[in-house]
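Design a sequence for this backbone.
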């Protein structure tokens, strides 16, 4: 385990009791992101980096839910939230870079407030593409540098402290998906454009198959 991996687990164990309060300002974006998925009864979804399971508040009835997080304290809170909401959640402790699920398992995968946090976000997206059904969709909600721009002076100034406390403010989404067959849809800015909501889908030209050269992580 690297120092970064150890610190991610340690800090989110500390944050777990107060995470809902800290993350409350991002609820509108979370709700909007899930609405854009157009989830239907019978859909099977995966929450990657589930945290305390705040996404569960916006999941419609009849949807099957699995969740994974690297921090046991967060997984326990996801389970408790699912019980309170009457949802049967398959919540597991695990690494988003090596998902314990078979290929093509999910109709939708949620990557909410995780890609700016984890080491090797490209591997997380590759694993997401692997477990996603050929006609599935991926909800992405996080803080990214807008496409075609450089990180602002403010982002660069805040980033050393931000990386220690919660996330990297200088990451770009486009390189994370470039090695997969996922195609990004319309990008909707939130909180002054610092945060982004979008839905990615497997490219139509792939016919459900991964294109040559696409990253396909294994477990």
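Sequence:
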């Amino acid at each position: 385990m690297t120092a970064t991996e150890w610190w991610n687990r340690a800090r989110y164990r500390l944050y777990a009791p107060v995470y809902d309060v800290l993350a409350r300002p991002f609820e509108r974006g979370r709700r909007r992101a899930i609405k854009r998925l157009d989830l239907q009864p019978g859909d099977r979804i995966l929450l990657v980096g589930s945290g305390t399971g705040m996404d569960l508040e916006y999941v419609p009835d009849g949807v099957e839910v699995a969740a994974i997080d690297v921090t046991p304290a967060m997984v326990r809170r996801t389970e408790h939230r699912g019980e309170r909401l009457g949802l049967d959640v398959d919540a597991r402790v695990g690494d988003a870079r090596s998902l314990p699920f078979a290929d093509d398992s999910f109709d939708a995968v949620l990557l909410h407030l995780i890609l700016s946090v984890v080491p090797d976000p490209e591997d997380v997206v590759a694993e997401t593409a692997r477990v996603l059904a050929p006609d599935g969709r991926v909800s992405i909600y996080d803080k990214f540098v807008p496409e075609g721009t450089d990180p602002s002076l403010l982002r660069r100034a805040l980033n050393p402290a931000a990386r220690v406390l919660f996330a990297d403010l200088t990451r770009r989404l486009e390189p994370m998906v470039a090695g997969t067959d996922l195609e990004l849809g319309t990008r909707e800015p939130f909180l002054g454009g610092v945060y982004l909501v979008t839905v990615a889908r497997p490219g139509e030209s792939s016919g459900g198959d991964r294109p040559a050269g696409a990253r396909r992580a294994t477990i």
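Helices lie at 3-15, 19-23, 27-37, 72-85, 121-131, 153-165, 174-177.
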